Fold this sequence. Notes:
Layout: E1 4-6, E2 13-15, E3 21-22, E4 30-33, E5 36-37, E6 41-49, E7 55-57, E8 65-72, E9 74-76, E10 83-85, E11 91-92, E12 100-104, E13 107-108, E14 112-120, E15 126-128, E16 136-143, E17 150-155, E18 159-160, E19 166-175, E20 184-195, E21 198-208, E22 215-224, E23 229-241, E24 247-260
Parallel strand pairs: 1-7, 2-8, 9-15, 10-16
Antiparallel strand pairs: 3-5, 4-6, 6-8, 11-13, 12-14, 14-16, 17-19, 18-19, 19-22, 20-21, 20-23, 23-24
Amino acid sequence: MEINNIRIPTGKALTYNGSLQKGVDEGEGYTLTSHQAINAGTYTAIATLTDPENTTWMDGTVEPKKITYKINKLSVDIPRSNTYYYTGSTINYLRASSYYTLSGQTSGISIGTYTAKANLIDTNNTQWSDGTITEKSISWSIIRDTILPGLSCSYSTPNKNSNGSYSVPVTITLSDYESGLKAGTYSVRAILGPQAGATVTSLGNITVNSNGTTSASCTIYLTAQAGGIYTVQAQLNSSVYDVAGNVNNSTSLVTGGKITIPK
């Protein structure tokens, strides 16, 4: 009688997915037990010849075979350290996934650095991408894209000069109530215009002596003609700094209203 040689099945290397998986495939000429599992771990399946009197394994034996297979833990990406721009509204760092929970500082409004905590829900079947299962601390930030101070201007009662013209005091104010102004000198321009096709401008400087000052101002005097109607404006034309300390040449212009010069 011809003896059929049966191929010995081999075990697989699988990854946990929450479902029942086959670690050893069925085949012709044998039966399997303990060859399916759900959780991560190392398992042993038993393969038994269906007809040991007329068949053998490829190695010539007929005894049941022990076959090892493994279900590896699922690798979960560690939450990234994200950076968000300040909006004035609550910013949520990240939504928890089905594999981990988030706690600690998971939301914020103000500019600053926050720390969230991430914990795996099932450490028996999942692990972080670095192979660990312990709690992760994730630092994330809310920043301002460019630290551009708020700009405003106002004018006071014009003073009449000896030549009949008027001197208009224009006060320009910089303010930053979120994190304070950066120390330095800001170049500003006061503008009266237009009047009969002409615009009157004059430069000035606002000096901030220490970081964190909430506001600073200067007054610039512009000469206007009697009887004219002017629009009062102020312009910031200065090197300002973003959160990384890089210089951004930014220009902003604001209007402080209209002024009528006496005749």
